[in-house]
Fold each of these.
Amino acid sequence: MDDELSIRDISMNFDDDDTIIRTVSDYGDDAVLTRLPSHQWKEIIDFLTVEDFKALRLTGSKALHNLTDPLFTSHLQLRMDKASFFFDGNNYSEQEARRWLSKRTRLVINDGNANISTRRVAYMVQHGFLDSVTDIIAANCHCHSEVLQRLAMLPNVKSLKILDSGAPSDDEDDEGEQSSIASLDGNLDELETIIEVIGNMTSLTSLDIEFDTVVSGSRLTFLRRLVNLKYLRLRGFDLSEGISNMAGLIKLETLHLCHGNFYSSPNDDVNEKDLMFLVGLQHITRLHLEGFDCLSGIGMSPFVSNSITDLVLKHCEESSEDCLSSIGRMTKLKSLHMINSECDDAPIFGSEDLHHLNTLSELKALSLFYVFEEPGDLSCLKGLTALEILNLAYEYPMEDEELEEVIIPLLSTFPHLRKLRIFSPDGMAYSLNNGSLEIEFSSYSFGDLVDLH
């Protein structure tokens, strides 16, 4: 009876990972733990994250010595670059490999230097070892081109994320930088081969590609076959061509497009008229456009629908007032982020331009980085009655007396405002409160990732 009570005590804490670890590790004599059958351990561990599971194994309890059994880790991701049965020269029985791969849903490759055996992967794919896999993440993907070509044959993959790095670092000399650039150019063949094979993965609903080199948008023809996609993120493509290949992705709900990448901006701008090919994508709720210069009402018009709830325009230089007019027709927007840096040729909007946004009565988060000059211009936005979070970026840090001049009109304009973030290139990070309003100050420069929610 005591043992049953103890087991039940552990089970009652499934909603609190820390409590599970603490409860389990508190049994100093291991009397109860040694009597827990495997299926009950499995029920406990299924509620733990990777880090929580590691902490549990490090508690030192003698009863936990069997937690290396694949039974207990089948719900966690598997590192292909760490699992020895994916490498030549390691003798594993098929039965043992199947035990490790049974019910495994996520495969990860992080190490570009890992010499994963293409032959072994091909055998496992062909004989159903990996049929349970639904998610694949591969970094330095050009190093694993042949392996990814085999994994692309898996029948049930729903989500694929591939990344490829190798751009010059800040501390490289000219010779090293030239070598790195040459290496990036040499990766193109492998990257183009990989994305062509992705076109065969017709079960995909989520695709995320991020390259540090720039691939021609003409290579995006593979997208025409991925008609089940609901999430698409592309970074590292020259989108001055190729956008038309997305026209048939009518199930898309999230679309994230970056013209070029952090390291390189293509010579030719995106022709905003090409965005008209996307007019049929009526289910998009989240839209992120980066590096799309000279946007006007034409470029934004395909997305003027009641479905868009989240819009990000990042480093989109020289946008026109007509762009704001189109955004103002996206009346279901919950968040709008116009992000530029001090290096961008950002458009400057006055109150006569910003007033187009007053129709966004459901907007809860707004970011305006380097797109207005006078804080007083924001007083025209009285239609944003639901706004709770406002993120602003200025060229210079704000002085205390200037802050007071900004806060008072903001509070009267946005009655539900609870958080104000103010960014500048050399700003110090600190926070303060003004009544119920939380104010955060921070620095922001090109390439920084910042929390806007």
Amino acid sequence: MNNFILMAEIVKDPELRYTPDGQTAIAELVVQFPGLRDNDPMETIKAVGWGNLAQSIQAQYHQGDRVVLEGRLGMNTVERPEGFKEKLAEMTIQRIYPLGADTLLTTSIQTGSDTSSSSSAPPPAPRPVAAPPVAHTAPAPYAPPAAPPAPAYQPPAYQPPADPEPNYDDIPF
């Protein structure tokens, strides 16, 4: 099953369009998220919402909002003017959740002396931070519960064989 969850920042305001028959709304937005490593640049992806979700995306979300997107990831092939084909990832949004300014996002920690200094430059934009990897330990192998010890083996007492019935038939078949 194709399921994709992404925490990102909206880079471009959602644009509301309609299908050619004018019945279904489509919201397109561009979001950015950090690369895998600290020195990787921010990555961008186009996200699309359909129907009533598209209308609520266009009404409630704007450039700069931080969101969690849940949906499907697809690949589209686009013919470039340079004469080659390019594959672009596109997310189809199924659910969208707003993030508060303090949700899993960190900036540099400021102390009291840092905040008193006057600076005309705005503070750097916060970047989403991945949670530290969790060390998983392998579960202990299954051991069935201990059974009570079996009694020591004792050979059965000797019993003489019972007398077989006499065979009155002379023919063996």
Amino acid sequence: MSHHRFATGLSAVALVVLVAGCAGPNADLFESATGGAAPAPPSELRGAWRGTFGWVGANFYEDEARIILRIEEDGTFSATVTRNGGANNLAKATTWAGTAVTSGNRVTLRNSKGPWGWVTLVRSRNGNVLYGVASDPVTKANVMLKIERDSRPEAP
């Protein structure tokens, strides 16, 4: 019984620390300089992006892949997902296509092709990184995504 009480108390303390940290001095980290997060038109996201996703807390198996994302001026996107190396990698190669919808600092990729229905990502303050957590429909595991704007001049 004392182990249960200790675990409950520790969980409560961790929750309080987490909530206090979210409401602390960095709570406005992703707000614009004007104080509010204005919607970014999809055209601001136009261009090539590259990134990865990986299984949160993987042990014996991996779910890791590389993502090449292209967002067009009209907000449509296409993406190619290829699995990283690794003998125990459960990731599957796939393609995504659909529309990018923005709301504040959030970007939702509404996929009309492939097993991923939609993925909502948070846009960094400088606008050059998209990141978030989603559920991989193949493994049913949570994966972390980080996609960065490809600033190379030869980017397609």
Amino acid sequence: MTHSGRPPGPGGQVVDGASTRERILRAAEELFAESGFEATPTSRIAERAGVPKGLVHYYFRRKPDLLAALVARLPDEPIETAHVVVTGDVAESLRRLVGELDERLGASPLLSHLLWREADTHEAVREALIHRFQRLVEQIRNVITAARPDIAVHADTDSAARLLALAVSYRHSVARHGEQPRPMARELTFLAEALARGAGTPASGAAR
């Protein structure tokens, strides 16, 4: 460490810590997505980032720390319910929500690819995906009940939210193979009509 508090670069010159860390993370994201976590040595990450290998270990003592940092970068801000809800129209409200979710996927395709790829072998990644799924179920349920508050009284909105969350998660998992998510207009209309007809049994906590 230099007197400036920044790590030394090649030849002892001071480097910008924030931009160096970002370059390392970006290189790790690309290489993990291309080759997998286990098959990517830190030397390749350093080469891709254009930094000495020692700087990779300066910022991330162990290679799993790189993966943990990438998981932490995953967008996790909920979509504002009011931003997508059309009062009285569940199908249109859900179409808007799914459109917002697809846009977020498009903003970080490499990171999404990486997380789906590594979920089977890394608990931290798996937990992050489970957390995302649970948040998605909650968002969908909130949109349904905001669009039609009466639906929760006579239909199973919990199961509907989980079913749609599973469908969206599947679409996003195959998008990593280059497939563009197709519109879900018919499916969302079907789901909205089923709820309007009182499909399923409402959760025991639903208001009556």
